[in-house]
Amino acid sequence: MVFSSTAFLFIFLPIVLLLYFNPVFKGRTYRNVILLIASLLFYAWGEPVFVLIMCFSIVLNWKLCLIMDGKKGSARKKVLLAIVIYDLGLLFVFKYLSFVTRNLGLLLNDESVVLNIALPIGISFFIFETLSYILDVYYESCRVQKSLLNVALYISMFPQMVAGPIVRYDVVSEDIDNRRETLDDFSAGVQRFIYGLGKKVILSNNVAIIADKAFGLCDAGQLSTGMAYVGVLAYTLQLYFDFSGYSDMAIGLGRMFGFRFNENFDYPYMSQSVAEYWRRWHISLGTWFRDYVMYPVMRTKPINALREYAREKWGKAASKILPTVAGTAVVWLFTGIWHGANWTYLLWGIYHGLFVIVPVVFKDRIKKFQTGKPWYNKSWAKLLRIIRTMIIVCIGNVMFRADSVAQAFRYYRVLLGNGAADALSYAQFYAWNYRYLFLIGIIGSYPVISMVKKSRLNQNVVAVLEMFFLMGILAVSVSYLVRGSYNPFVYFNF
C-alpha cells in the first residue's frame, strides 16, 4: 500500500483515525497499540510474508539490545557485533544476494548459481532505523527501551517505514510515551500531507511518463538529442517530487498523530555546490551515514595511522584533509550501494563522491580564489553556481535512472548528439504539451510558497488563498487516483 492510493486515502487512513481518536479509549498505550497494528497491516498489505520476518527481527533486536545493555567491555562488543551481522546479513540476503549471484553466473557462465530473491519494499529504511537505535544504545547516546511495544512502534511506524525519512530513536522516543495530539498539529499535518500528495500525484506521476518514454526510446534506438534533454529534465523533476512528496506525506501523517519527524528535504535544487546539494537532499540518509559510517571510520586505527603519516610527510593541513577524504569516499561507496544492487548505483555514488571530495582537497585554493572577488557573491554568480550544480546532478541522474551501465552510456552519447535519432516529434510533443507542468515543477522546486507566507502580504488573505489552493490540490489529486492514473514510486526500490 502507498499513501497515494485510493485504498489508503479512503479506507485505511479513515479507519485508523477513527480508532485512534475515538472518544472512549484515549490512553497512550491504547493509541500506541492501534498505531502498531495499523503499521503491521499497512506493511502486510504489500509484503504478507516479509512482515513475519520483520516482526521476528524486531523482537530479536529488542532482546539482544537489552542483553547488550547489561554487558560491559568485550562482551558488550560481541553482542553488538552479533546484532549488526544479523541486520546487515538480512539486508544483504534480500537486497544484494541476487545481484552477487547474477554477476557470479556471468563470470562462470553458469546460470544455475543465480538466485532471484524478491526485494521487500523499504527494507533499507527498516534496517537503518533498527541499526541507529542499536548503535545509539551501544554508544550510550540514548537509554535502552525495555518496552517491546515502544521498540516495535518506532521501527514499524507506517508513516515513515517504507520510504523514510530515516527517523532516529532519540527524535521520537519522548513522543512515543508523552506526545500530545492537538488540533493545530493535526491541521498542520493534513496541510503537509496534501502538499506531498500533490507533488507525488500531479507532478511526479505525470513527468514520470515522459522520463519513461525517453529511456524506452533509448533502448529502441529511437531517442533524439532533444528528447534526451527533455527526458533528463522530466526525470530530475520526477525524482524530487516523488521522494520529497512522499517525505511530506510521512511528516504530515506523523504530525497528525503527534510525532515531529525531522525534515528530509530543503529545496536541494537551489544548491550552489554538490556538497550543499547533499546537505539538502535526503537529509536523514546523509546524517545517518555521517554519524554511523564516516565518523566511526575516521576513528579507526588505519585512519589514525594515515593521519599521523600525513602530518609527518605533508604537514598539519594534510593530516586533516586525508582522513576526511577517506571517510567521505567510504560514505559515497556505501551511498551508491545503499540505493540498489546495480553497477549503475555504484558508479553514481562514485560520481557524486568525487564532486564532494575534490572541493575538500582544494579547499584552501578555492578559498583563496574567492577572497577579494566582490562579484563572487553577486546574484548572477550564485545563479551560475546553481545552474552548474544542476547540470552535474542531471548528468548523474541518467546513471541513476538507467537500467544498466550500457543504457546510461547510450543515453550520454545521444545527449552529445552521437547516435541520436533524427526525429524531433517526441521532443516537440512532450515539451509543448507538458510545458505548464514543467513550469510548475521548476517553480515548485524553490521555496515560493514559504516566501509568500513570510512576505508583507496580508496573512489572513494568504491563509484563505492557501486553503482554496490545498482544496484544489486535493481535488485534482483524488481525480487522478480515482481514474487509476500512472502511479509509480521510485524509492520503493530502495
Structure description:
It is a single chain. The chain is mostly helical and 494 residues long. Helices cover 74% and strands 0% of the residues. It is built from 22 helices and no strands. It has helices spanning 6-20, 28-46, 50-69, 73-95, 97-108, 123-138, 148-156, 169-178, 183-220, 225-256, 274-280, 283-298, 301-314, 316-339, 343-361, 363-370, 379-401, 405-415, 425-433, 435-444, 448-453, 459-482. α1 (6-20) runs antiparallel to α2, α4 (73-95) packs antiparallel against α6 and α13 runs antiparallel to α14 (316-339). The longest helix has 38 residues, at 183-220. The radius of gyration is 24 Å and the shape is globular.
Q: What is the element string, with H for helices and E for strands?
A: HHHHHHHHHHHHHHHHHHHHHH
**Percent of residues in helices:** over 70%
State the helix count: 22
Can you summarize the main beta sheet? none
Q: What's the pLDDT, averaged over the residues?
A: 88
What structural class do you assign from the helix and strand content? mainly alpha
Strand fraction: under 5%
Distance between the termini: 16 Å
Task: Give the CA-based shape.
Answer: globular
**Rg, nearest Å:** 24 Å
Tally of DSSP β-strands: 0
Poorly predicted ranges: none
Protein traits:
494 residues; mainly alpha; 22 helices
Give the secondary structure arrangement, pairings included.
Elements lengths: L5 H15 L7 H19 L3 H20 L3 H23 L1 H12 L14 H16 L9 H9 L12 H10 L4 H38 L4 H32 L17 H7 L2 H16 L2 H14 L1 H24 L3 H19 L1 H8 L8 H23 L3 H11 L9 H9 L1 H10 L3 H6 L5 H24 L12
Helix pairs in contact: 1-2, 2-7, 3-4, 3-6, 3-7, 4-6, 9-10, 9-22, 10-17, 10-19, 12-14, 13-14, 14-15, 15-17, 17-18
